[in-house]
Design a protein that fits this description.
single chain; about 300 residues; eight-stranded mixed sheet; 6 helices; Acyl_CoA_acyltransferase; N-acetyltransferase
């Protein structure tokens, strides 16, 4: 049986690790890949997580090497236990992401490598002696978080190791901008474009009163971080006054956003909703969105 070594990540592993990360990203989001610099930067800090990243006390990345090839890798975080850290994160540790090659004819012992790596991860979590151990799949790419249903091989490793899904399930949806509702006049209603919390905001107003808004983030494809994500944007927020339900205002707002996205050269728009919120999912389906995948958030180590 080929020699198997589980060891800390080395800089010389960077290209193979990036290839492994991109294999997993490609199974979740169409047309997206990340650069070597993005992966290396994520191992040092996560600039997008501006609230939780400063709470991290330790980071470590482990790989499983077989036949001089990185077949599995994991990134672990330990959060501080002081009062500055949010209560949910205080004195916890997590497998921030875990990737490995699935079993194939040319890689029949892939599961063995993954299980060896997982044992090393659990040993590190035990040495940190934290109050709770979690796991996730938050790769440094848009829309890749939780444990996507597209990774049954990762789910199997987590479950064999004693991790259990204790959180929520989210649905990730995608629409072609060309399929979004067409712009139609709406008497008495005006649209204003401003900067919102999560991107460019389009607000519908009538008689100086806001009726609802939608925000779109067109900055997902930062060239220094992503090798390929052009043409992709996401809905940061979509809010409608309850009195406007059923009037088609949601579609009208999405049409305003679609005109802007076409000017930005964006051809795909993504959204995410809780799996339990059937009304919101139906609304988006009626606007041209289709389900891309589901992802299960919140995995806690509960052996036995």
């Amino acid at each position: 049986m080929p020699a198997l070594e589980v060891r800390p990540f080395r800089r010389a592993d960077r290209d193979q690790l990036t290839d492994l990360v991109n294999m997993h990203v490609a199974a979740v989001v169409p047309g997206v890949s990340v650069s070597v610099n993005t992966v290396l930067g994520d191992l040092e800090r996560q600039p997008g997580e501006f609230i939780t990243d400063p709470w991290v006390a330790e980071r470590t990345t482990l790989v499983a090497e077989q036949r001089r090839c990185v077949g599995a890798a994991a990134h672990l975080l330990r959060y501080r236990a002081d009062a500055e850290v949010g209560e949910t994160y205080r004195d916890i540790a997590e497998i921030n992401w875990f990737v490995h090659r699935p079993t194939a004819s040319h890689w029949p012992d892939a599961d063995r490598a993954a299980d060896h790596l997982m044992r090393a991860c659990l040993a590190q979590l035990a040495r940190w002696n934290v109050r709770v151990r979690y796991a996730d799949g938050a790769l440094p790419a848009p829309l890749v978080y939780g444990l996507p249903r597209n990774w049954p091989h990762i789910r199997a490793v987590y479950e064999r190791a004693g991790f259990r899904h204790t959180g929520d399930t989210e649905v990730i949806l995608v629409a072609r901008v060309a399929d979004l509702p067409a712009h139609e006049p709406r008497p008495g209603v005006t649209a204003e474009r401003t900067l919102g919390e999560c991107g460019t905001r389009f607000t519908a107003s009538a008689d100086a009163r806001a009726l609802g808004f939608v925000e779109v983030d067109t900055a997902l494809a930062r060239p220094e971080r992503h090798a390929r994500a052009a043409g992709l944007a996401d809905i940061g927020n979509l809010h409608i006054d309850p009195a406007q339900y059923g009037t088609g205002l949601e579609h009208w707002l999405l049409a305003q956003a679609a005109d802007w996205l076409r000017l930005c050269g964006v051809d795909r728009l993504v959204a995410y909703e809780m799996a339990a919120d059937s009304a919101r999912l139906d609304l988006l389906a009626g606007a041209g969105f289709r389900e891309l995948t589901r992802t299960d958030r919140g995995w806690e180590h509960r052996p036995g």
